[in-house]
């Protein structure tokens, strides 16, 4: 009877919807107590998959950053914000204003602005939900014995590290081991905590992800929605590459080699639309809209049942979706970056003459303003970013040959002929590192990853003439306006932070 009652309790509470206060409920509004969750996990760890799914769903749910803003829809909402801050994405018209304060660089210096609140609340929401799962499995220092429990613990620890990684990138101007940057929570019961040092935050991320990789050994996921061993390796590679000691960079090379052995690269056909003379799409594998694309490592299959519409990444980015990008707030490629792409590079064809990414990201029906309920999928991670990271780490270690080899693997798919990219063979040292960064900007445009590369490579930016605001101005990577402030809500709720 106890087992039946507990199972009924978790099913009913995991899906209760309620208004959530700042960081005080489960990601899906659940109110199950710690003791109840521990009992559930002891009886059947698989039941915790429902709670884990609630954490994952925060990654695409509207309002997961705690606001009603039409730019608040989980990870992909953050991705647009980060791309705009790099200046590689140009806000070229402002009819609705959702990203106005970001592009004007007036929002981030104001701790009371929602743009500082949304990422903070979103990532700590992920962390809180992950901690609920970890607590139910015995706590952060527990070592699961049951195989299913290991798989769940591995995902939860990777999600917690994912949350802390993005917080460490957004809310710190640069890596400084001794700087106090974020409160650390390793369970869901702790009261407010003071800020911990960068070194301590990184130590937790490394520990979590190392354990996650071990626990997820042998895990075969049913959907790319879930984190597996290779996604955990990818997250750990990001952590190491942002800290970037020589030892870290060596580990980045090893981790990315593992990933590249497991996943193919995005093909030339998948990279950009090819249209017939009548404008019909001839390569339906293009569009960055299908989670089943072999190079996609982590993503989510969006369906009618999820019921996303204009408040979505596709709504903000896709000319063929009924929403803001079509109706009056296009987000285009920076004109100078576009012009830097050779005409023999397939990635140049991803953009229209005006700079819209209408042949990189699109609903396959390609009806202007057509897609209303979102069925095109979200991408969170793909193999190509780790080929570039592999090249970057090798170059920073002084291994120019392996760096060039990795870079040319990508360029051989993007260019028409070897002669088009033969120039990279002569590059060494800083020039090679700069080329890898340039190729990262071209390859990962619009995917939210260039901001991370900008910070770890300490690269500045200059806005081209097609930006609506601050055109022609230059920005250092450590310009405070390109990072976020701990939000006012946290200073009001946490007596240790002012």
UniProtKB/TrEMBL annotation:
Highest taxon in the source lineage: Bacteria
Pfam family, any one: SusD_RagB
Gene3D superfamilies membership: 1.25.40.390
Keywords: Cell outer membrane, Membrane, Signal
Annotated localization: Cell outer membrane
Chain ranges of the RagB/SusD domain: 334-477
Domain spans labelled SusD-like N-terminal: 85-240
Database matches in PROSITE patterns: PROKAR_LIPOPROTEIN
Family as reported in the entry's similarity comment: Belongs to the SusD family.
Protein name: SusD-like starch-binding protein associating with outer membrane
């Amino acid at each position: 009877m106890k087992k039946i009652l507990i199972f009924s309790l978790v099913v009913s509470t995991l899906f209760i919807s309620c208004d959530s206060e700042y960081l005080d409920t489960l990601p899906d509004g659940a109110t199950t107590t710690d003791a109840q969750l521990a009992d559930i996990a002891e009886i059947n760890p698989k039941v915790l998959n429902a709670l884990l799914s609630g954490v994952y769903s925060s990654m695409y749910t509207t309002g997961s950053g705690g606001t009603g803003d039409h730019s608040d829809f989980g990870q992909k909402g953050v991705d647009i914000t980060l791309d705009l801050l790099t200046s590689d994405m140009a806000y070229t018209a402002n009819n609705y204003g959702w990203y106005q304060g970001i592009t004007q660089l007036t929002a981030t210096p104001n701790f009371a602005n929602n743009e500082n609140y949304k990422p903070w609340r979103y990532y700590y929401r992920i962390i809180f939900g992950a901690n609920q799962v970890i607590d139910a499995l015995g706590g952060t220092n527990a070592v699961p014995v049951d195989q299913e429990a290991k798989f769940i613990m591995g995902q939860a620890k990777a999600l917690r590290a994912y949350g802390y990684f993005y917080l460490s990138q957004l809310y710190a101007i640069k890596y400084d081991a001794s700087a106090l940057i974020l409160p650390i929570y390793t369970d869901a019961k702790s009261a407010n905590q003071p800020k911990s040092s960068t070194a301590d935050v990184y130590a937790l991320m490394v520990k979590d992800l190392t354990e996650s990789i071990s626990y997820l050994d042998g895990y075969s996921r049913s959907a790319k929605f879930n984190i597996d061993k290779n996604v955990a390796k990818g997250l750990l590679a990001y952590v190491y590459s942002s800290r970037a000691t020589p030892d870290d960079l060596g580990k980045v090379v090893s981790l990315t080699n593992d990933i590249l052995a497991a996943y193919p690269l995005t093909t030339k056909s998948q990279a950009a639309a090819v249209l017939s003379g009548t404008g019909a799409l001839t390569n339906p594998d293009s569009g960055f809209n299908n989670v089943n694309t072999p190079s996609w490592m982590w993503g989510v299959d969006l369906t009618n049942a999820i019921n996303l519409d204009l408040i979505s990444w596709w709504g903000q980015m896709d000319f063929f979706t009924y929403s803001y990008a079509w109706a009056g707030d296009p987000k285009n490629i920076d004109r100078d970056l576009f012009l830097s792409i050779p005409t023999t590079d397939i990635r140049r064809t991803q953009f229209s003459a005006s700079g819209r990414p209408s042949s990189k990201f699109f609903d396959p029906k390609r009806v202007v303003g057509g897609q209303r309920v979102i069925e095109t999928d979200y991408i969170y991670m793909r193999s190509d970013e780790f080929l570039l990271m592999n090249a970057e780490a090798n170059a920073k270690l002084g291994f120019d040959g392996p760096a060039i080899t990795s870079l040319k693997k990508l360029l051989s798919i993007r260019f028409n002929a070897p002669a088009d990219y033969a120039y990279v063979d002569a590059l060494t040292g800083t020039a090679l590192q700069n080329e890898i960064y340039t190729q990262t900007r071209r390859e990962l445009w619009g995917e939210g990853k260039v901001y991370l590369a900008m910070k770890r490579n300490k690269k500045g930016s200059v806005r081209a003439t097609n930006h609506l605001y601050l055109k022609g101005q230059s920005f250092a990577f450590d310009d405070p306006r390109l990072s976020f402030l701990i939000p006012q809500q946290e200073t009001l709720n946490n007596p240790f932070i002012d």
